[in-house]
Amino acid sequence: MVTVNEAKHLIVTQAAILPTETRKLGDSVGYVLAENLNAPLSLPAFRQSSMDGYAILHSDITALGTGLKLKGESKAGQTDLEILDSGLAMRIFTGAPVPDGATAVVMQEHTRIENGMVFIDEFPVPEGKNVRRIGQQIMAGTVALTAGTYLSPGGIAFLQGLGITDIQVCRKPKIGLLITGDELLKPGEVMVPGKIFESNSGMLAAALKQEGLGEVEIGYAADDLHATIEALEKLVEKNDIVLASGGISVGDYDFVGDAVKAVGADTVFYKVRQKPGKPLLFAKKHEKLFFALPGNPASSLVCYYEYVLPAIRKMTGRTDLFLKALQLPIKYGYAFDGERDEFLKASIADDHVIPLDGQESFSIRSFALADAIIYLPVTQNKVAAGDLVEVHLLPF
Ligand SMILES: Nc1nc2c(c(=O)[nH]1)N[C@H]1C(S)=C(S)[C@@H](COP(=O)(O)OP(=O)(O)OC[C@H]3O[C@@H](n4cnc5c(N)ncnc54)[C@H](O)[C@@H]3O)O[C@H]1N2
Ligand code: MOO
């Protein structure tokens, strides 16, 4: 049996970053950049107006109400503009090129047009007012984004704006799920007394989907050693990570531990000093990782968030591996006996964290209502209302 921290340490040190691949920028959200990218052009690439109004020479405006002769127009997308001379104003729109010679743009709300003249009701007009400078966001040739950057929609937009179409990212792991248990019915099957509609496949597939891993191979095995080995072998062959659900405790029909050995994986640890999720097993075969998650749904999901997710993130090149953690006051007092650290399904409201009803490991309804997990180490087995506790935010 290892501690929570030992288990986490073993997992993130054993998980290795996957090789890189080239992807279309538009298909790269949620991936991690595997190369340093320099800006091929400056942004903005030319002086742009940030307002609809009039381009002028700021030095022409010597008093409130200075009149300038209106000459020409610059609209967005314009490529051929004449130089603006002193004494003139050019009609201009947001995003349009500021003509050479002009040193500022006055927004149209601060102007009046009378007889072909533009009167500027603003004084003084500072140089550069309402003009986006060349390279104000980034200069050509400088570092745009560095290897290791997680690509958010903002990152995609930034690189697309630089004209970049293909990038090098860390590959994401292929994941296989093995669902074990004789009592399990798949969605749509006919309910029979003694059976249950299994839900761990949907739960884990959904959690993986949220992490950008939409294609998951799912295998099923009855509570039988040979069936479990066979299903496991298939999944291990094609995937980087295999998650098994159920069959990892000490019952006569729990075969996953033996099957893991039979496929040649080395167990790194079995059992973590925690509740729920004690019988978690972590094994490795070369670079492939294997997690045997306990069948109880809440145990399985806690183990996914606390251990599997960091491994996935490490393999995809991310450096923020764990759920975001913060300290919050707990709404109600909570106490527990025993030697195991506890993870509680919880929700956050009014700057407090609330432990939810239904903390049993079979109870998944509380997870349906949770947006966080409270982590209470055994050293903190009695907390009073208002005490600070460690809270892990679920990904949303
Ligand atoms: N004598 C002992 N018994 C148990 C111990 C122990 O230390 N000594 N540990 C308990 C703990 S803690 C857990 S957690 C469970 C883990 O059991 P398994 O991983 O072997 O899981 P199963 O026995 O197959 O199933 C447990 C529970 O979960 C339900 N289940 C299984 N698969 C699914 C699924 N795909 N979808 C929904 N629900 C599922 C299953 O029907 C059982 O109710 O062991 C304790 N026992
Ligand atoms: O580890 Mo179990 O998950 O306490 O029910």
Automatic annotation (TrEMBL):
The keyword Metal-binding applies. GO terms for molecular function: molybdopterin molybdotransferase activity. Pfam families: MoCF_biosynth, MoeA_C, MoeA_N. Keywords: Magnesium, Metal-binding, Molybdenum, Molybdenum cofactor biosynthesis, Transferase. Its cofactor is Mg(2+). It catalyses: adenylyl-molybdopterin + molybdate = Mo-molybdopterin + AMP + H(+). Belongs to the MoeA family. NCBIfam families: Glp_gephyrin, molyb_syn. This is Molybdopterin molybdenumtransferase. It comes from Dyadobacter linearis. The lineage of its organism: Bacteria, Pseudomonadati, Bacteroidota, Cytophagia, Cytophagales.
